[in-house]
Specification:
Order of helices and strands: EHEHEHHEHEEEEEEEEEH
Distance between the termini: 15 Å
CATH superfamily: Class I glutamine amidotransferase (GATase) domain
Strand order of the largest sheet: 2-1-3-4-13-12-11-8
Number of domains: 1
CATH topology: Rossmann fold
Low-confidence stretches: none
Structural class: alpha/beta
Number of strands: 13
């Protein structure tokens, strides 16, 4: 069973639909016991960093998410869900993130002349043998929607990056924790393969 965390941050249905298309057993929930009992957990999200952290606190999910990570349950953050795993974001000064991974979330540079938010398809540069990208060729395209980007402290956890006015850490992996700035559920065949790789990690207890 893969659990999708419901904290009123949107994008739940498309993730659920993609997983069900792959034949996975899925539940959408904010119940702590159901989340802790799940074989794998996904934290999707669209919206603002501060708002999302407030909702996680409101539903008393911050400690639950940290416990899931501590329990070594396979965990996947998507888009805003990636950003929340880190310590802070320029979008919400003074608001602490979950702090499960080390790094900060920065505003995309406006001086690049590129449109913000970044909406569209970008190719990925793969590195460090990410398990989410097994069987995926380098330079495949995935779908992004974001105004802020990750700069992880440790380059070794970065498994995919892209360029959009700056160098963006597009996917990270540390132990049982995985995260993507892009939307695999909206990235066609390649995105489905990434979600299938996560489901296989869950199933095989890697």
């Amino acid at each position: 069973m893969i659990a999708i965390i419901d904290y009123d941050a949107g994008n739940l249905k498309s993730v659920e639909k993609a997983l069900k298309y792959l034949g996975e057993d899925v539940i959408v929930t904010r119940n702590t016991k159901e989340l802790l009992d799940a074989d794998g957990v996904i934290l999707p999200g669209v919206g603002s960093f501060g708002d999302a952290m407030n909702k996680l606190h409101t539903y008393r999910l911050t400690d639950t998410v940290r416990q899931i990570a501590d329990n070594k349950t396979p965990f996947l953050g998507i888009c805003l869900g990636l950003q929340l795993l880190f310590e802070k974001s320029e979008e919400a000064p003074g608001v602490d993130g979950l702090g499960i991974l080390r790094g900060e979330v920065l505003r995309l540079p406006e001086e690049s002349g590129l449109k913000i938010p970044h909406i569209g398809w970008n190719s990925l540069e793969l590195s460090n043998n990410g398990r989410l990208f097994r069987g995926i060729d380098k330079d495949e395209y995935v779908y992004f929607v974001h105004s802020y980007y990750l700069k992880a402290d440790d380059e070794k956890i970065v498994k995919a990056s892209t360029e959009y006015g700056t160098h963006i850490h597009a996917s990270v992996e540390q132990d049982n924790v995985f995260a993507c700035q892009f939307h695999p559920e909206k990235s066609g065949v390649i995105g489905l393969k990434i979600l299938k790789n996560f489901a296989d990690i869950v199933r095989n207890g890697e």
